[in-house]
Amino acid sequence: MLIRASEAGKIDDSTERIVEYSSGNTVISLGIVSKIMGGPQVGAYISNKTSPQKMELLRFFGLDLTLFGGPAQVEPADVNGGIHAAIQDGMRPGWYNPGQYSSPQNSEAHVRWTGPQIHAQLPKINIFAAAVGTSGTMTGTGSYLKSVRPDMINLGVFTAPGDRVPGPRPIDLVQTVDLPWQEVIDASEHVSSKDSYRVSLELCRQGLLVGPSSGLSLMGLYQYLEKMKKSGELDSLRADDGNIYCAFICCDQPYQYISDYFTKLEPSCFPPIYNTELLDRDLYPYGVDWILSPTDAFRLLYPAHGLQTPPAEPTELDDEFKSVREPLIHAHAAIFDLRSQTDYTSAHVPGSKNVEILCAGNKNPFKNPKMLADLWEVLRQTLVPHAKDMSDKSVLLISYNEEIAYVGCSVLRKEGVKAFALGGGFDKWKEAGLDVATVPMRH
Q1: Which terminus of the chain is more solvent-facing, meaning fewer CB atoms within 10 Å of its CB: N or C?
Q2: Would you call 424 exposed, middle or buried from its count of C-beta atoms within 10 A (0-12, 13-18, 19+)?
Q3: What pLDDT score does 56 carry?
């Protein structure tokens, strides 16, 4: 349509804007082709009832959107609708509307390409089924196939009255389309949105990644064949070898409609989700560099020590230095010990603060989804209040194992705190020969 418009001088260097009422393939293609041709910005006129996912898809491809209220699918002749608005705006100076609902190039492209390609692959075709929206596919493809296979059947498939499938239309909304689709079709079927999505889902699970309008076309074909079978006329459709050769159009994909499948279809159509307790827990990112070895943790906490490596044995540090170890923690560092108060009292890293988290014990929470969900919530409630005072500090979290501390890191990092987990837990600190402190017992 754009090439022919350029050849006719309807689009030239003075054209500032192209508009089309479409929320799918047509306007996306117009936007891409216009950019390739060095043409102007393309705007999509769409219903305000278009799904947010579809709007995002259109904007992803660089289209600006103009929304229209009223029915989601309008007749071209409706003066209150977006189709009429696009036609009128296309008459403004510097604007152009390709007009897919009336443009002969719509169906001519299918006469030139789609029809011959189908016939080349299926020369004995008996039935061609296509969803009808603008009717360009059926008008062009169907007319070509009739010219080479006069006895074949063109089956127009429409959305059931009062229902909606993206792209196709109920038959009453196609009556005023200018393309001569009524002269081409031999039979018609009307398909519900539920059946359209269900058949599309079945096709996708068989490896054909096609959307709801494709499901509508195939379901219409199924319905027609079943009717012919019940009426005893099925044999009249057979080719000379006894087979019935059918083709149906798949012109959409499922991805932008995923949420609609779950709305339209029964829950039993979809496999279950296990470990659902994690749907609203443990939601924050993790970093692979957040787990520090005892050596790296020591350097983070005690830069004033002046050692390149921590001592191999505690005896290498004299008693006088041990007594002042705690104040030498870097001013911009802090330590939270998440173990029980009893274990913290028995032995802990000097300068650490005990924040008791008991719900996971010494177990790996990543091996138990419920435990992880509970731990994450407890850590969030316990650690987040401390975050505002830690924005300028590097925080080391210590627990019985690195996994518990790792979850805590994720919680604090979400709050902007530079948090790390002690690899291997508190026992690894002791095994490295690093200093520990105790809390004196009171008598």
Answers
A1: C
A2: middle
A3: 94
